[in-house]
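Field guide to reading this record: the first block holds the primary sequence, the second block holds the structure written as C-alpha cells, and the final block holds curator observations. Each block starts with its own label. This record concerns Ribonuclease D, catalogued under organism Actinokineospora fastidiosa.

BLOCK 1 — SEQUENCE
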Amino acid sequence: MLLTEPADGTPDVVTDDAALLDAAAALAAGAGPIAIDTERASGYRYSQRAYLVQVRREGAGTFLIDPVALDDRIDPLISALADEEWVLHAASQDLPCLAGLDLRPSRLFDTELAGRLAGFERVALGTLVERLLGYQLEKGHGAADWSRRPLPLDWLNYAALDVELLVPLRDALEKELRAQGKLDWALEEFEVLRTAPPAPPRKEPWRRTSGIHGVRTARGLAAVRALWETRDSVARQRDLAPGRVLPDSAIVAAAVAGPEDEAALLKLPVFRGRAQRRMSGTWMRALRTAARLPKSELPDPSPPNDGPPPPNRWADKDPDAAARLSAARTALTALAEANRLPVENLLQPDLVRRTCWQPPEPADADTVAATLRAGGAREWQIALAGPDLTKALQARA
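BLOCK 2 — STRUCTURE
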C-alpha cells in the first residue's frame, strides 16, 4: 500500500513559540518511544544544521518544527523529549545537527543499524517499511534544498511520512532481533552510537578533493590546497555548499594547468562561466600564493600514514602478516555469514588490518580481546569474533 500523505493529514509547521509550547505539551503527554528525523540542505548549504525537525509520538501525533523560524530556541521541546527513547533511522546522520539544537537522546533505537544487525541486505527506510510493515513510502525529496521557504506541501508530506511508521518499524525490528538472539548486541551498538563524541576535524581535508590523484607534483598539490581553502572560506561566509562555489573538477583542472594570469584561468572549463569570471581574481590570488611557496612549505605528495600499508603490498613487505590477514578475512567472513551479519558490523575492517599487521604479544585470547577493546570493538563483537581472530593471528606464510 502506497502512502502519499500522513494518516492524520499534513500538520502545520511549528514556527512560533505558542505552537512550540503546544507541541511540547502534546509530546510530553504522549506514550511510548519518540520518532525523530531531520532535514538538512547538505547539497546547497555549507552548514549542516537542521532546517526541519520531525517528531511523532503515540497519542500526540506528528509535529514539523522549523528551528530557523524559532531562531533555534526550542527549550520546551528539549524538556518534552528528555528521558525518553528516541527512534531514528541512520542516527549518525541526524544526531550531530540535533545536538546543535541541544537535543540529545538519553536512549536510542536506530532502525537502520537494527536492520543491518538483523541481516537485511537492504536497509533504506522505505525498503524496511515495505518488507516488515507492508507499506510503501512516497519518495523524492531527501536531497532537496530544505533551507527553502516556504516549504512545498509535497515536501512536508514526505517529511511527515519519514516518522509516520518509525515506531512500528522499531517494534518489528526489536522482535526480529530478539528472535535471532541479537537484541543485546543492538542495544550495545545503540549506546555506543548515542554516546560517541563528535568526530574530530580531518587532517588536511583538502586531500579529499575528488580527482586529486591526477595532480602529480607537490606544487600542483599546493595549488589544490590553496584553492580548496579559499573556496572553503568563501563557502562558509556565504553559507553555500563548497561544490556550488567551485567544483572539485575545476580545482584540479586549475592545479594541473597552472595558469599564469586571469586570462589563462578563464580559458579553463567552469572558469568561463559568469559566476567564476566574477571570482577570477580570488582564485588567481590563491594560485599565485601557492606558486610562490618555498619548497619547504609544499605539501608532501606521499603524506605519512599511521596505519599499515595497503593489503596488496603485504605479501612483499611481511608475508606472515599477509597470511594472518587472509586467515582472518576467511574466518570472519564465514562467521558473519553464519550469524547473518555484514562482516563490517562484525569487526571494523581497519581494526582487523591493524591487528593482523601488528598483532599483540602474546596473541592469546586475553591480549587479543584487550587489543580489540582498545580499538573500539564492542563486547559482543569481542566475544563473537575474538576466538576466530586469535586463531588467525597464529597463521604463517
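BLOCK 3 — OBSERVATIONS
The first strand starts at residue 2 and ends at 3.
Residues 2-195 form a domain with the Nucleotidyltransferase; domain 5 fold (CATH 3.30.420.10).
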